[in-house]
């Protein structure tokens, strides 16, 4: 039976470029929920009051955690129905409650 795997790779300046397996799940929805929780935790760790979304996203990217969901089977394909970067930017806007200055 095929499983969905959530991985986080450390690719920041001060990282060791390692990949860690966050979890394995029976459904795509469970894997996406795990990835969202991971992203939310990373964003909240870098969030400060009065930040703009772009600032929070820049801190998130500088932390160097790239999140990926794969279907672990013969093809080992990336799950395209969830984009971690788009989700992170959406959450930055929600957490900050305002838009970046023009």
What would you say this structure looks like, in words?
By secondary structure, this protein is an alpha+beta fold. The protein has a single domain (3-96), classed as ERH-like fold, CATH 3.30.2260. It is built from three helices and four strands; from the N terminus they run ββααββα. It has helices at 28-46, 53-63, 84-96, and strands at residues 3-10, 19-25, 65-72, 77-78. Strands 2-1-3-4 form a four-stranded antiparallel β-sheet. Strand 3 and strand 4 (77-78) form a beta hairpin. The protein is elongated and about 50 Å long. The model has no long low-confidence stretch (mean pLDDT 86).
Task: Give a short summary of the structure.
The protein is an alpha+beta fold and 102 residues long. Helices cover 42% and strands 25% of the residues.
Which keywords apply here?
single chain, 102 residues, alpha+beta, ERH-like fold, four-stranded antiparallel β-sheet, 3 helices, 25% strand
């Amino acid at each position: 039976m095929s499983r969905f795997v959530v991985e986080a790779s450390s690719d920041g300046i001060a990282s060791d470029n390692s990949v860690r397996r966050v979890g394995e799940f029976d459904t795509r929805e469970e894997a996406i929920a795990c990835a969202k929780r991971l992203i939310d935790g990373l964003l909240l760790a870098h969030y400060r009051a009065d930040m703009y979304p772009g600032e929070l996203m820049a801190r998130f990217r500088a932390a160097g955690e790239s999140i990926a969901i794969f279907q672990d089977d013969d093809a080992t394909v990336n799950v395209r129905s969830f984009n971690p970067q788009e989700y992170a930017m959406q959450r930055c806007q929600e957490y900050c409650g305002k838009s970046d200055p023009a």
